[in-house]
Amino acid sequence: MCGWTDFDDLKYKYYSREEWGATPAADRRPIATPVQYVVIHHTYLPAACNTTQQCFSAMKSMQDYHNSMGWGDIGYQRCTERALYLIYSFSNLPAACNTTQECFSAMKSMQDYHNSMEWGDIGYHFCVGSNGGVYEGRGWNVVGIHAGRANNHSYGICLIGDWRVATPPKTMLESTKRLISIGVENGSISPNYKLIGHNQVMATECPGTALFNIISTWNHFSTDVAVFKTVAKNNALS
Ligand SMILES: [Zn+2]
After folding, report:
1. pTM, to two decimals
2. Cα(229) to centroid of ligand 1, in Å?
3. Using 50, 70 and 90 to split pLDDT, how confident is the model at 86?
4. Helix (H, G, I), strand (E, B) or coil at 101
5. Among 28, 31, 94, 204, which one is most buried in terms of CB atoms within 10 A?
6. 110 is a domain residue
7. How many whole angstroms from 69 Cα to the centroid of ligand 1?
């Protein structure tokens, strides 16, 4: 499940898809490596829904998530599309996870939601929990669905939780840095990679202001995302 490095070198606990109970991926398009960009995310899901279909998916996702918390049903009494939008605006799902079991539930919840959007799998390549554990999403070999036109050129790493105001725990940040350096060591990530936040390539609050302020101090942080605007303009996404 992780032949690219020695477990002793990981310095964090790594959980494969099998361990957190992923369903098989329907989308396994190979990604061209080494990848030039790493995109950092938080979880703030489901996002606002703008169509009935999107809202249906959001409701199913919330029910799945709430069921996974042992609540027996979706927790909200009544969700009109407008109410749903408001709920999303002030809720964060999944919330930060502090135990392996909570993080497994968060991973399953995200995979269910992303599958309901017909993305064929959880969108991110890897997720990191508050306890510093790293959870395998799509892994190093396939294209993710996490950053629009940057998908084909980046890995998406999600720090589980809402980091608009709260600051991620140090161990979570250290695992994220270590994960990126392992990607460089195994040839998946270019040594000259650029680190960016989701909000630099799409109109979103993700990865949250508090987290964004932190990653903007890290090595390789870049404001150079002009390439993606060119890609959009020329419709030249490969
Ligand atoms: Zn994001």
Report:
1. 0.76
2. 18
3. very low
4. helix
5. 94
6. no
7. 23
Q: What is the pLDDT of residues 43-83, one digit of tens each?
A: 865 455 555 666 666 666 666 666 665 666 655 444 444 44
Least confident range from 69-73, 83-87, 105-109: namely 83-87
Query: How far is ligand 1, taken at its centre, from the CA of residue 8, in Å?
Result: 30
Tell how far the Cα of 31 is from the centroid of ligand 1, in angstroms: 19
Assign 202 to helix, strand or coil: coil
Angstrom distance (rounded) from CA 188 to CA 109: 27
**Claim to verify: residue 13 and residue 78 sit in the same structural domain:** no
- β-pair type (35-42, 189-197): parallel
Q: What single-letter DSSP state applies at residue 107?
A: H
Q: Look at the chain and report how many structural domains it folds into.
A: 2
Distance 232 CA to ligand 1 centre (A): 19
Distance CA 133, CA 13 (A): 5
pLDDT score for 237 = 36
Give the Å distance between the CA of 149 and the centre of ligand 1.
13
Residue 190 sits at φ, ψ, to 5 deg, of: -60, 140
Q: How far is the C-alpha of 39 from the C-alpha of 125, rounded, in Å?
A: 10
pLDDT exceeds 60 at position 24: yes
Ion ligand 1 neighbours (CB, 5 A) are 41, 198, 206
Domain that holds residue 157: 7-45+94-104+119-234
Task: Compute the distance from residue 148 Cα to the ligand 1 centre, in Å.
Answer: 10
